[in-house]
Amino acid sequence: MSHGTFAWNELRTNDVEGAKTFYGETIGWTFEEMPLPEGTYWIAKFDDEPVAGIIDIAAVAPEGTPPHWFSYLAVDDVDERAEEIALNQGRVIQAPFDIEGVGRIVILADPTGAMLGWMTPEMEEGDEEDEDEEAEEEEEAKV
After folding, report:
1. pTM of whole model > 0.85?
2. Could you report the per-residue pLDDT of 41-94, keeping only the tens digit for each?
3. Rounded to whole angstroms, how far apart are CA atoms 140 and 122?
4. Does the N terminus or the C terminus of the chain have fewer Cβ atoms within 10 A?
5. What is the rounded distance in angstroms from the CA atom of residue 143 to the CA atom of residue 137?
6. Could you give the strand order of the β-sheet that contains 49-56, starting from the edge strand earlier in sequence?
7. Inter-residue contact 52 to 9 (CB < 8 Å)
8. Are the C-beta atoms of residues 8 and 75 closer than 8 Å to each other?
9. pLDDT digits (tens, 9 = 90+) for 103-133
10. Same domain, 79 and 135
11. Alpha-carbon distance 90 to 84, whole Å?
12. Are residue 5 and residue 64 in the same domain, yes or no?
């Protein structure tokens, strides 16, 4: 995932089973359960590839929050970038935290009040080599 690009979307809803039925029937998604301390997170898959998440909104948002899709941007360093949020009229909603097998995330509101997450994905074996190769290719392209 490239810095500054949308990396993940999740549906926060009060009817997880209804959402799973809807997207399963209309889009063809299948679902894999991922237990979390605050409840079950469902990984939506298409052709066995993860495409989105679904979670009970009560686990992640204040009472009365309507169901909505929530987006995450990939960033190169969540902790470093989080320090810049308040300096640029944003607001940290939830300080950086780790989700095993996913990465490090901060939840924020931008200056307009729009909420989103920034995440630095967890490196998998071979990712560092891929990044090194991409950096070398970019350098060669500049020459």
Report:
1. no
2. 999 999 999 999 999 999 988 899 999 999 999 999 999 999 999 999 999 999
3. 27
4. C
5. 10
6. 30-36, 39-46, 49-56, 6-13, 68-74, 115-121, 103-109, 91-99
7. yes
8. no
9. 999 999 999 999 999 999 988 655 555 555 5
10. yes
11. 8
12. yes
User: 59 and 1, same structural domain?
Assistant: yes
Q: What is the pLDDT of residue 128?
A: 52
Domain enclosing residue 137, as ranges: 75-143
**Could you tell me the CATH number of the domain that includes residue 103?**
3.10.180.10
Tokens of 14: 């009060």
Same domain, 21 and 81: no
Please check whether residue 93 is in contact with residue 65, taking contact to mean a CB–CB distance below 8 angstroms.
no
Can you read off the two tokens belonging to residue 28?
């063809």
pLDDT tier for residue 5 given thresholds of 50, 70 and 90: very high
The answer on 62 and 80 residing in a single domain is no
